[in-house]
Amino acid sequence: MxxxxxxxxxxxxxxxxxxxxMPLIAQTMPMIASEVExxxxxxxxxxDERHTNPLGGVHGGFAATVIDSIxxxxxxxxxxxxxxxxxxxxxVKMCRPIPFKKQLIATGKVINISRNLVISEGYIHDENxxxxxxxxxxxxIMR
Length: 143
Description:
Blueprint: H1 8-16, H2 25-28, E1 31-37, E2 40-45, H3 60-76, E3 84-94, E4 104-113, E5 117-125, E6 131-142
Antiparallel strand pairs: 1-2, 2-4, 3-6, 4-5, 5-6
């Protein structure tokens, strides 16, 4: 499988099917790609003791990293072969504490595409729709 000739959507779909391994950040911040379509990704995420902050809860960096990942991966799904992106702006709002060892759903969606920039949003929620964190990102397309 030649990653250089795959579109972003093809690459993300290959990740979700296990045809290519998830990047190592998915081990540090446990993430599994469960759904991928053009302009949208859904990951299953679970915080554990490695993500503990000094107060004993889940560090806010867990949610920020997950939201950066899902907004970036949603952006990746709209790119052509050989194109890449970089996050230029990331905003994250924590709505409630992320629980330990509870699988949550992280959804990233592209909301605007221009010549050089993509804006996407991301949500971390539970199976009942309870929102834990929200964010948006701007990514620069590099051709």
